[in-house]
TrEMBL record:
<keyword id="KW-0472">Membrane</keyword>
<dbReference type="InterPro" id="IPR045252">
    <property type="entry name" value="LPCAT1-like"/>
</dbReference>
<comment type="pathway">
    <text>Lipid metabolism.</text>
</comment>
<feature type="domain" description="Phospholipid/glycerol acyltransferase">
    <location>
        <begin position="1"/>
        <end position="70"/>
    </location>
</feature>
<dbReference type="GO" id="GO:0008654">
    <property type="term" value="P:phospholipid biosynthetic process"/>
</dbReference>
<keyword id="KW-0812">Transmembrane</keyword>
<keyword id="KW-0012">Acyltransferase</keyword>
<keyword id="KW-0808">Transferase</keyword>
<keyword id="KW-1133">Transmembrane helix</keyword>
<dbReference type="GO" id="GO:0019432">
    <property type="term" value="P:triglyceride biosynthetic process"/>
</dbReference>
<keyword id="KW-0594">Phospholipid biosynthesis</keyword>
<dbReference type="InterPro" id="IPR002123">
    <property type="entry name" value="Plipid/glycerol_acylTrfase"/>
</dbReference>
<keyword id="KW-0256">Endoplasmic reticulum</keyword>
<dbReference type="Pfam" id="PF01553">
    <property type="entry name" value="Acyltransferase"/>
</dbReference>
<keyword id="KW-1208">Phospholipid metabolism</keyword>
<dbReference type="GO" id="GO:0004366">
    <property type="term" value="F:glycerol-3-phosphate O-acyltransferase activity"/>
</dbReference>
<keyword id="KW-0444">Lipid biosynthesis</keyword>
Amino acid sequence: MQTSQHVLFERSEMKDRHLVRKKIREHIADKAKLPILIFPEGTCINNTSVMMFKKGSFEVGGTIHPVAIKYDPRFGDAFWNSTKYSVMTYVFNVMTSWAIVCNVWYLPPMVKEEEEDAVHFANRVKAVIAARGGMSVLPWDGGLKRKKVKESFKEEQQKKYCQIV
């Protein structure tokens, strides 16, 4: 990882967030360095949706080169359901799959518009990726895979549903 200039951080540590933002800005400013590959969802789900992007990647400036990635599950499943399978079972399933096939679409570069904040920019990029990959857009993050849903989020969804009914 040291030879390929990874930027490692602990997401829950506020000091690390500021340090990472600084490192990314410095990296972007140095035109001799390769672009940074960032997965702003922070986690994967079942190949049907694009979850909420973490806004930090979209706060630092620079040009975003979106990439839509979608696995074709016909020959092997690339996803690990950690609540259902151990890591050893997952590795065995991947290693014994006939193939892991993945469609990759390189989309046109995008830049943050003047009136746009990081969240709106992230949502705009997310929508373009989801549209190209034929996936739906989800307004929540991958933390819901392992955490209980907040009561305020439930109430908000209930209000929306009541308005429809």
